[in-house]
Amino acid sequence: MPKEKRLVRRARKNKPIRQVAAIPYRLTVDGAVEVLLVTSNTTRRFIVPKGWPMKSKTGREAAAQEAFEEAGVMGEASEKPFGAYAYWKRLSGSFVKVNVKVFLMPVDEVLADWEEQGKRARAWLSPADASTLIDEPELAALVLSLADNPPAPPAKAKPRKAKPAAKPKPKREKTVEPKS
């Protein structure tokens, strides 16, 4: 709830509310593009992985992290945004407009098990099919543009940016020495 209150306050002050997103994609053997969509947590609509900017990460790193967490894919997001779109985020008592920077992300690895697997479904689709399932017109247009202008195959030598979250360290119990 505190995050919702902050978002509403920012919106009332006409301050922009920003998110970052990744369009995970792969090239088939015949060179066709497939994009990965996931379902949203609440409405179960098909969307691209997206989330809030992270203080310790650049926009592209945060987008790759969201793709890792929400879709279970790994890769390095493009250095520059591929585009942007806006949507109305549903809160408990209102809606706020959110501006989203979108980064392309060639997928290097698809994980069988991932963090939000129980919350989301994922689907590999052609850009044309994916665009028909996406409700946000600007995002649908960005995805559809990949059909006409497929990205060049990514270089394989670059290290991945998205990494699994570190496992929490076990808590140590304090031992209390009896007083003598």
Task: Give a topology summary.
Elements: H1 2-12, E1 18-27, E2 33-39, E3 46-47, E4 50-51, H2 59-71, E5 73-75, E6 83-90, E7 95-110, E8 122-125, H3 127-133, H4 137-148
Parallel strand pairs: 1-7
Antiparallel strand pairs: 1-2, 1-4, 2-3, 2-8, 5-7, 6-7
**Rounded mean pLDDT score:** 83
Computed CA radius of gyration, to the nearest angstrom: 19 Å
Low-confidence stretches: 157-162, 166-175
Q: Share of helix among residues?
A: 10-25%
Shape: globular
- By DSSP, the count of extended strands is 8
The largest pleated sheet is described as: 8 strands, mixed
Please report the distance between the alpha carbons of the first and last residues. 50 Å
Structural class: alpha+beta
Q: What is the strand content? A: 25-35%
Question: With helices defined by DSSP (H or I, 4 residues minimum), what is the helix count?
Answer: 4
H and E order: HEEEEHEEEEHH
How would you portray this structure in words?
This protein has 180 residues and is of the alpha+beta class. Helix content is 24%, strand content 29%. It is built from 4 helices and 8 strands; from the N terminus they run αββββαββββαα. It has helices spanning 2-12, 59-71, 127-133, 137-148, and strands at 18-27, 33-39, 46-47, 50-51, 73-75, 83-90, 95-110, 122-125. Strands 1, 2, 3, 4, 5, 6, 7 and 8 form an 8-stranded mixed β-sheet that branches. β1 and β2 (33-39) form a beta hairpin. α3 runs antiparallel to α4. It is globular, with a radius of gyration of 19 Å. The chain starts with a helix and ends in a 32-residue tail after the last helix. The model is unreliable at 157-162 and 166-175 (pLDDT under 50).
